[in-house]
Amino acid sequence: MEKVRFGIIGIGNMGTSHALSLSRHIQGAELTAVCDANPDRLRWAEEKLPDTVLKFSDAEDFYASEAMDAVLIATPHYDHPPLAVQAFRHGYHVLVEKPAGVYTKAVREMNVAAAGTGRMFGIMYNQRTNPLYQKLRDLVLSGELGEVRRMNWIITNWYRSQSYYDSGGWRATWAGEGGGVLLNQDPHQLDLWQWTTGMMPVRIRAFCQFGKYRNIEVEDDVTAYAEYENGATGVFITTTGEAPGTNRFEVTGDRGKIVAEDGKLTFWRLRTPEPEFNATYKGGFGSPECWTCEIPVAGGDGSQHRGILQNFTNAILYGEKLLAPGEEGILGLTLSNAMHLSTWTDDWVSLPLNEQLYADMLNERIRHSSFRKNDGGSVVLDVSGSH
Amino acid sequence: MEKVRFGIIGIGNMGTSHALSLSRHIQGAELTAVCDANPDRLRWAEEKLPDTVLKFSDAEDFYASEAMDAVLIATPHYDHPPLAVQAFRHGYHVLVEKPAGVYTKAVREMNVAAAGTGRMFGIMYNQRTNPLYQKLRDLVLSGELGEVRRMNWIITNWYRSQSYYDSGGWRATWAGEGGGVLLNQDPHQLDLWQWTTGMMPVRIRAFCQFGKYRNIEVEDDVTAYAEYENGATGVFITTTGEAPGTNRFEVTGDRGKIVAEDGKLTFWRLRTPEPEFNATYKGGFGSPECWTCEIPVAGGDGSQHRGILQNFTNAILYGEKLLAPGEEGILGLTLSNAMHLSTWTDDWVSLPLNEQLYADMLNERIRHSSFRKNDGGSVVLDVSGSH
Fold first, then answer.
1. What was the ipTM of the complex prediction?
2. pTM for the whole thing?
């Protein structure tokens, strides 16, 4: 194979952006087909994409066409798993937009469908290309920070106005997105939280507030507390209602603490690991000698969406290792599902999650939803500044 | 009255420091008596304090002496309320060290005893003299920040080694202190949390870990979540087990956010209050214009213990307003008691607190304590750098 032929299903906000990237910027990739049920989006494709790109309004026809080697799924979240399962059945490689899906039960079925196909399976976790989080992961996984003790992520700079929510009828509804800030804005942070530390909690207690700041039915404000097998704890705080908000991720360990904020990584490194100091110190109020270290981080946000597209293409062409394997999409989603479930049951949620219970309780919310927004129609927003 | 005559009961760590301050630094104050049951401490008093200072080994004799106008109570925490009640009965003014006590039921009795005596009642919340928190309170209470939405205090820089805990048999035991980091290190922050914002929660869900990092029976690691009547939420994270730790207090409101960290106050101020922006904005991803404002704060930590001593003295002599009225000691302690109770019951705790239940559950822990430390004897630590 000289070039990977890509078909995109879903050319709304993100799919449009990926279509243009694939046509212009990704070496070894070629856009050969798009599919969207919305006539407006197909008209856009007719006008803006080359004639060589086939246009489909029906997913069955799209999959049957064999016009591509790889399918990029950029539809609304709920459709990711079933469309991926279908793609694997047709023998395509699959790159799925984030989140992997809305509830882990469906995502688990997607992972099962992927297993043993010999096809590449990736997820658009473009923040994994960000040098800041790559370096943080390096410091934690290489043991520089020692055993992790506490993680505290305040990620409240996802400001969204009511007009944003009104720009699409599916937005911020149980039926349309299956959640709010956790499903739409935070999937990257929920992924990075466990990717940079290599740790998943054993249980979670979370406090979601639904429609607190906006006229929506899903969560727009969350505080979650997590406990880990090694005794570490974590806090994750997020909202779309605050401005300017904060994005500050602090990780502490036996050897000090690291803070990722404002694109910078600072490592307060203990000369002696804390447990060693404690075991030998005989005084009153002393503490271990600490060095403030500015950690060098490559500039910019990394290669982002194009980086993931290029990596996925290279994986197919040359066997390059995937930066964001699709199977890992379930991890961040598990955190998000657990936060909902803990709020709904007003109780702890232990992992592994009771996935059937979550699916049932989500369905209940969809069935009983009487929510109608002042729908401004499905407007395609300019997401060039989005993640 | 030209001078306020002070008697100090309890001349251990803090009492010693106050005795020296009163003798040397406080205008209009005079140290006339001390009381301590420990012969070592009385020997110290004989050697280091003027002969004019009466020394008592028995509280009854001390109170009966009428050798003072005001009593400063610097004994272990449990004794604060009963000793204060006794002092009020004798007609003395009372300045009590922090915390006000160990459980709010007893502290409420102290407040009742104070009411209507016409005597001054103060508490050693010396951090209220800190210009940083005074300015924060000013910005919040004057309305500059708008309606408060979120408070997030990471106060993990209270590092204490095992040798610290071993320096006193009473330290970090249910019977001796009635708690750990919440009772000994955090009373200032628990006070400032509600004093700077003027807000007490309606309910709390907390996660204390007991003896996690040290060989102690009380909590040395806490994450607490709080909800407020106006919908605001708060998180309070503390430990004595981390180095170097963090002291970062973030408060967000309708008009932006304020962060107090490293002795600096930064106010990210929105040009238009967020609710107003949201009501009129019609675009997609926009957010309110935000100005980063460095707020001027007077240098240093303020007048601290001496400031409280001076203010209390002036209140008696000239009717100066108390910066830290004793009756307010119950507020921070309520937060701390609620955090314990929520952990013990593994459930929400609504305020007002069930004070009898808390007292019962605390007593249970004292009765069932089988904890014996490697007691290094009761060493008097140098607390000159302590708060």
1. 0.94
2. 0.94
